[in-house]
Amino acid sequence: MEALIIALPGILIAYGVFVMGMFSPGPNILSIMGTSMGVGRDAGKSLALGIASGSLIWGLLAWGGLTTVLVAYASLMTIIKIAGAAYLLWLAFKSFRSAMSQRDLTAKALSLNGGASAYYRRGLLIQMTNPKAALTWTATISLGLSPDSPWWIGGIIVLGTGFISFGGHMAYALAFSTKPMVAGFTRARRWIETGLGMFFCFASYKLVTTRA
Question: Measured at the alpha carbon of residue 105, what is the angle toward residues 100 and 111, in degrees to the nearest 5?
Fold first, then answer.
């Protein structure tokens, strides 16, 4: 229990980073939105489940990899945290740059044969072939880990973000199946991206200032 209390601030920040990341639509989110609008909610939901499943797999891989590294080379945690903080700053830069741009959201539909299973497999493939997922998960999990953290702390982070991932991706499939919802999100995009940039800066600071 004491270990959980000590790690709780980092765990909560990790959850926050994951939630904020989902508010910034990338190709995965845009494919869900476009498919829900252009093909239908059922297709969007299946695609969302596939993407969320891939995200969970990446989380498990990152957890296992970091735990193994820390057991063998605890001193590498400082390097991992610095790398994670740098990546969070890069996400902040991208959010601020996006907030200042005039671009509109481009949500393209995926038209596949084979029903729900085809969309699920495509979502899983999209996520598992996304190299940025590994960096995102490494930065997220390292927020709650230290060399003396019990192995199950990473499991709590993966479990919690797994629920967030499935719930969030399904929410996109359900809510953004109509053009008015996408239009409303587009109007609020700059404020959302600015807030994301600020949060990523905060998370980067916390990552480098917490004890390794």
Answer: 160
- Nearest residue to 167 (alpha-carbon basis) of 8, 19, 37, 17: 19
The model's pTM is 0.81
Neighbours of 84 (CB within 10 A): 24
Query: How many domains are contained in the chain?
Result: 1
Rg (alpha carbons) of the chain, rounded to whole number: 18
Identify the CA nearest to 136 among candidates 91, 166, 169, 199. 91
- From first to last of its 212 residues, the chain has per-residue pLDDT tens of 777 787 888 888 889 888 887 776 677 777 888 888 878 888 999 999 999 999 999 989 888 887 777 666 666 777 878 888 888 888 888 888 877 876 666 666 677 877 888 999 999 998 888 777 777 888 888 887 776 778 788 889 999 999 999 998 998 888 877 777 777 777 777 887 888 889 889 888 888 787 65
Whole-angstrom distance, CA of residue 79 vs CA of residue 191: 33
Residue 102's SS3 state is coil
Question: What is the DSSP track for 32-90?
Answer: HHHHHHHT-HHHHHHHHHHHHHHHHHHHHHHHHHHHHHHHH-GGGHHHHHHHHHHHHHH
Structural domain of 71: 2-209
